[in-house]
Amino acid sequence: MSRAVNILSLILFSVVLVFGNADIASAAKQKKIPKSPKFVGAVKCNGSCHDSYYQAWKNSPHGKTFDLLKPGVREEAKVRVKLDPKKDYTTTPLCLRCHTTGYGQKGGFQPAGTMKKGKDVSSPVDPNEPNKEQVGCEMCHSVAGGAQFRVVMKNTKGDFHKTDTEQYGQRWDYPNVCTRCHTHRNTPFQPTVHDKYKFNFEERKKKVHEIDKYWTPDNQDQKLEKIKDRKNEKAKSESVPLLIEDFDIKDDKIVFKKEAMPYDPKAGTFNYKK
Q1: Distance CA 134, CA 256 (A)
Q2: From CA 210, how far away is CA 62, in angstroms rounded?
């Protein structure tokens, strides 16, 4: 009897040891969440996570916004709002805010010629692999960049709740966030200039993620299995939209107004509309 008990104890110990080690190994694979948010670029969303979404975005209007700042592009539209159609606007702060990702904020796009401590820190621009130089994922889905919540997504393999990522700066107030640029007071493309600049969220969003044509045998495993479940959840920002950044351009630099920021980096808190 004693021998049988000893054998059973050994078996149970082995099972605990095996599964315990599996838990340790699993925990070891968990990436550490950064202390604060910052912009990381759309390329980080590509690869093993959102390839179909990245490919669709790359060929959408959002994936080509930086190109509009080049001389000779969209001449008629520029003339309409009294911009010089022959001028290169790819380093103009007012334009970069809404034609790139995270410009003027931590980790955001840095235009050509940006120097820091004698070193060129300009963001690389690759026409074959667009990234921060276009209006990427984080401009619509985050308050201050996706460095934190993308780790939550990876650690959970996509099985997360809205609140899990919202606490790290993912936003769900999409009709509101579009006003970051499309109807912002600083854009020259106002509805008062032309009816085509009137913003209709439901119509515009149809052009954002036309993903169906980009599914391939290689990325089928990236389909978002939990997206239907999350549609039944209600994030705070869906009920109470976050603030939209306001800014001015002073001495050819962008200056954000602290009272209008959706995220306070010092306090680590989010600011909602009242």
Answers
A1: 20
A2: 12
Complete DSSP assignment for the chain: -HHHHHHHHHHHHHHHHHHHHHHHHHHHHSPPPPSS-----GGGGTTTT-HHHHHHHHTSGGGGTGGGGSTTSSHHHHHHTT--TTS--TT-HHHHHHHSSSTTSTT----TT-EETTEE-PPP--TTS--TTS--HHHHHBSS-STTHHHHHHHTTT---HHHHHTTTB---HHHHGGGTTT-TT-S--TTT-GGG---HHHHGGGT---GGG--TTTGGGS-TTHHHHHTS--HHHHSPBP---EEEETTEEEE-GGG-SEETTTTEE-B--
What's the predicted TM-score (pTM) here? 0.88
- Extract the tokens encoding 6: 């000893």
Report the amino acid identity of residue 63: G
d(CA 53, CA 3) in angstroms, rounded, equals 60
Please classify residue 78 by burial: count the beta carbons closer than 10 Å to its beta carbon, then call 0-12 exposed, 13-18 middle and 19+ buried.
buried
pLDDT tens figures, 158-211? 999 999 999 999 999 999 999 999 999 999 999 999 999 999 999 998 888 899
Contacts of 147 (CB under 8 A, 6+ apart): 34, 36, 37, 38, 39, 40, 107
